[in-house]
Amino acid sequence: MHTVRPTRVPSALRSAALRGFTLPIAAAALVCSSCQPATVAQSEEAENEPGWRWSDERVESTVNAVRAGRNLQPESWPGGARVAVLLSFDVDNETVTGLRFGDATVGSLSQGQYGARVALPRVVDLLEVKGIPASFFVPAWSFRLNPHQVDLIQAAGHHEIAVHGWIHELNSSLEADEERALLERAVS
Predict the structure, then answer these.
(1) What is the mean pLDDT of residues 149-169?
(2) Number of neighbours of residue 86 by Cβ within 10 angstroms
(3) Which domain holds residue 30?
């Protein structure tokens, strides 16, 4: 797993992107630049017709459009390990429960606030006790609303932070230009 040394982060994701977090950001940019949203006709058709009514060709072409690339498993793991495990956490907070779809109710926002106030510190503390490094995928707005989380994650010295969008937008519903603009905004 890629190890990131702690640095002081004055402006959340932009500094993270510029100070050693280029691998996750480059990966996100590659994914965003290679993803093409389905056409309106395709998405309307897919919404109106259940998968069991699709032709074999349609199922295969739909699945093949988003398949992962080549197998990345090495012939052997470092130190003779039999398996490798990556722990990753989405630090979505208010972005997924209230802001993503504009459902900014007291209930949805308070659910997200629990993640910032209680859940993330508990997760980071447990990882520290066990000496386990992890990756944290964070929408830019999660850090803007809760900037203390940057220091919390980086304090252990072995976690990595990766961009998880601007406001946890639904990338599959965005046009390529809008998706790219939001990613650039997230790391600026």
Answers:
(1) 94
(2) 9
(3) 13-37+86-186
